[in-house]
Amino acid sequence: MNDKHVVCIVGPTGSGKSSLAQALCVSKGGEVVSADSMQVYRGMDIGTGKVRPHERMVAHHCLDLVDPGEPYSAALFQRDSRAAIGQIQSRGLIPVLCGGTGFYVRAAIDDYEFPEGEQIGNPIRDRYLAMFRDVGAHGLWEELYRVDPASASIIPENDVKRVVRAFELIGDGTSYAHQKKKLASIPQKFPAVMFGLRVTPDILRKRIDARVDQMAEQGLVSEVKYLLDQGFREGITAPQAIGYKEIVEHLEGRASLDEALDQIKTATRRYAKRQRTWFNRDVRILWIDYDSMNSDAACEFISNRLDTLA
Fold it and tell me: I need a surface site. Which of 29, 54, 57, 160 has the fewest CB within 10 A?
């Protein structure tokens, strides 16, 4: 990576990040690096809001890296995103890191060193995933609370991925709570400028609802059915797989389609709130009022800002 800045476009789901990132890339000469923890999965296209291939005006990186349910982590994203950023810059283009997974954004641009346990093939991970299959999410979380109450108290009990991660960190001689506290003071590793899209909650709620309805029209149910037929049930029913686990409930007869879509809308709004909370803590982000500003005006605003850094 050279001394050119990485441009980060962040914000909650449904705020318009993808279209703005593409517009900026076209205007300034760049390529998109996705920072979305669910868009790394092959076949999970409609439900994750991936820009469809025929709508991509520039190259996109860090999409479709693994099959659903296959282990993937922020440490692996750090490796993959930095490789993509280096390739983009080597061609004289601007890397535009775009996404709503805040930890992935920080993993790419900040000087965060992951313990070895974050990698694939960790026996501690395998052990506690097996425990999860035996005792369920609540039982696994209770075991974490017994050995590390500080970490358990800040991890929702149904967030199996983070609960297992907490056990891995214990095995490395540290804790999830300590790592989370440390994250706030980690310095930036590479030159980057960060822009956030701010949308008022009421407008964002309407956008999210419309987006979920559009996903249904585009074939979300068929996409989920295909993934089930391919044997990816475990991957698409994971707690973080919003838009997939709800449709599985519908396909298995436990919810009507309308009920499933309402559940997706509610879960997505809650996720957007968590994203806002995460990004609001990062003082580096220059916020853009995206209620009133369209993509052309926002692109011009960002371009002018970048010109001052040249």
Answer: 54
